[in-house]
## 1
Amino acid sequence: MLGFKGQVSTVKRWLEKVGFKDSVARDYVATEVFRSLDDLIIRLKTAPIIPKFDVEKDRKLLRAVCASCMTEGGIEIPVHRVVLIAKKLVQGDTPK
């Protein structure tokens, strides 16, 4: 679902259009823990979290995040996630 941007309701409508029903959205806040700044940088480079992320240009912000989020276990970053659950219509089913 990484290619989807915008409102959850838009994605739910798309799911219905392509054959899913009874879609439900659930959201939660979790904590990601990174052992080091290098680990956090790898995550930011490989996940579409910050548009146009650049290690050198964003170095000052990275240091600020480390300073405010560092714990004994590592750099703890709160993350908000949305999970969509839907049933796939099978042949013979009719949408409700």
## 2
Amino acid sequence: MRLLKVLLGVAAAGAVVVAFRDFRNRRWLGPALPGLAGAEDDLLAEGEEGGEELEEPVLGYDGMDRDTLVAWLDDADLDEETLLRIRRYEVATQNREPVLDQVDDLLAAFG
């Protein structure tokens, strides 16, 4: 019985490592909370791309399709910094107009 508990503990630890480790960039994944990443001061114009490889602005972003993402943005109550990260990432990756329109509408509320 003790051996079974040890094996289950090792399996659980392995699952945590696989789920929360970014092996490509050799770092741990952080929670999708505002203010944890570096500030994005500039707003990319459409068609403009950044020189560096961008990471998901929030955990799970790449797993959402366009319609799910637009609905999530409407319900998420995100701060300006997070919206700027999302806009930068969207312009640099998929550049979906409905997503950018939703982000721009939400950013307009900040002034």
## 3
Amino acid sequence: MLKKVLTILILMTLSACAGASAPDRTGQAVYDTRDGHQSTFSELIPVLLRQRIIIVGEHHTSVAHHRAQLMVIRALKEAGADVAIGLEMFRSDSQQALNRWVSGELSSAAFEKIYYDNWTFPWDYYRMIFDYARERRIPMVGLNVAREVTAQVARKGFGSLSEAQRGKLSNVTCRVDEDYENYIRKAFGAHGHGKMKFTYFCEAQLVWDTIMAVNAIDYLKSNPGAIMVLLCGAGHARKGAVPRQISSRSSMAHVVLLPETADSITIETITAEDADYLIRLEN
């Protein structure tokens, strides 16, 4: 009971701190995975301003991770960048609803229903980001495909999709580097998928990686002055996933930031093969 009350209090605090009233966190420590140098996030901002895509991973239920994502978005916006927010959490066919949210046409109650049609994790974890985007009129871009598509791929493979279902996806096969394959195998085992084929599960993971990369690139081609902050799960954010798909399709400059996670993503465990920077969360 006490745990439930504390969770409610945390979520209430998040709503109260949304938007411009959110605290300045640019003093947050950042660890460079390539040379081991540690600096503050404010020192990293000039590097981020030279990118086209900034991929910031998350554990979906981590409040601290969503605060870190908002920190990145706010810093770029306040530095004068033309920022857009790319979302794993929304399908591309919900783009009109995202546009209406940002423009202020939809009430919170109406938009929350659309949110839950796209994503299953609690709205209150993400609300601070969506409120800030609405307040500052920052475009939000749905990057994902319908759940039915990935579910079918996981059961029957990419080859089972019709031309209409494939959409922008020309071909998806389970060709990944060893580190990413090991990560996918671990996820496959953790989900307990029974008789499901690993190859199909891998293809479903790559459908998400690929469509997010394709949609992000398409948006930035249409908006050549923009920088996209791409929000997605830490598994999709790692370099072998969405970034690999971006690199194979475009020369757009991009970096990967992963927020620290005590039991899995730390200075001791992260490498330059995973991400460019680790956002420290100890303060």
